[in-house]
Amino acid sequence: MHGYEFYVDPSRCIGCQSCVNACAECGTHRGVSMIHLDFFDREWTTASTPMVCMHCENPTCAQACPADAIKKGEDGVVRSALKPRCIACSNCVLACPFGVPKVQIEMELMMKCDMCYDRTSVGLRPMCATVCPSQALMYVTPEEAARLRRDIPVNTFHFGNQEVRTKVFMYLPQGSQSLDVDVVSDMWRQE
Q1: Can you tell me the distance from the alpha carbon of 62 to that of 80, in angstroms, rounded to the nearest whole number?
Q2: pTM for the full model?
Q3: 65 vs 48: CA distance, rounded Å
Q4: How far is residue 78 from each of residues 59, 60, 62, 92, measured CA to CA in Å?
Q5: For 5-190, CATH number?
Q6: How many CB atoms sit inside 10 A of residue 144's CB?
Q7: Residue 106 gets which letter from DSSP?
């Protein structure tokens, strides 16, 4: 689906988990969901957001893989680990700034959102984007995204001094050019 982009709008997530269930039904996922819901400040709110792989331009999961099992395609999609190569060491899990990869212990394999490559490579939308009732997940053209939302999608994130640019766009409050994530400050705030 040339010209289509993946968008995440956390403000529209209603926590229904339709995306999580649909992901598990994708043909290549072996009944395992490659995305999950994150809950923000669970003590004070029910706000949630779906977490898909952000498909980083320079994926730290692939850089941290000692077996060279994680590959990024020419289309910018970072694939799940290759079974013959993956040693289930979890380096990718620790390296990902978004906390996306998961090692499936029983399969000894890292699996993560691959933007339903089996579907998008043949002109279909990712499973999660087809079932999201609130359009928190969208796979549309940039023109359609602009028509549907007033907010500007961003694909630049800051984790301390590290800048991460991604293939997936996220809607942030108006006026935001990037998302600055300060994990250490958040940890202190929770105590």
Answers
A1: 10
A2: 0.86
A3: 30
A4: 8, 11, 8, 12
A5: 3.30.70.20
A6: 14
A7: G
Q: How far apart are CA 79 and CA 69, in angstroms?
A: 9
Chain-centroid distance of CA 99 in Å reads 9
How many CB atoms are located within 10 Å of the residue 88 CB? 17
Per-residue confidence in pLDDT tens, the chain, 191 aa = 678 999 999 889 999 999 999 998 887 777 889 898 887 766 676 778 889 999 999 999 999 999 999 999 888 899 888 888 999 999 999 999 988 998 988 888 898 998 988 888 888 999 999 999 999 999 999 999 999 888 889 999 888 888 999 999 999 877 666 666 654 444 444 44
Q: Which whole-number Å values give the CA distances from 167 to 7, 67, 157, in the listed order?
A: 9, 24, 12
Residue ranges per structural domain of the chain: 5-190
Residue matched to tokens 């984007």: 129
Residue 71 near residue 110 (C-beta atoms within 8 A): no
CA-closest candidate to residue 171, choices 143, 117, 135: 135
Alpha-carbon dihedral 78, 187, 33, 135, rounded to 10 degrees: -80
- Rounded Cα gap, residues 110 and 86, in angstroms: 7
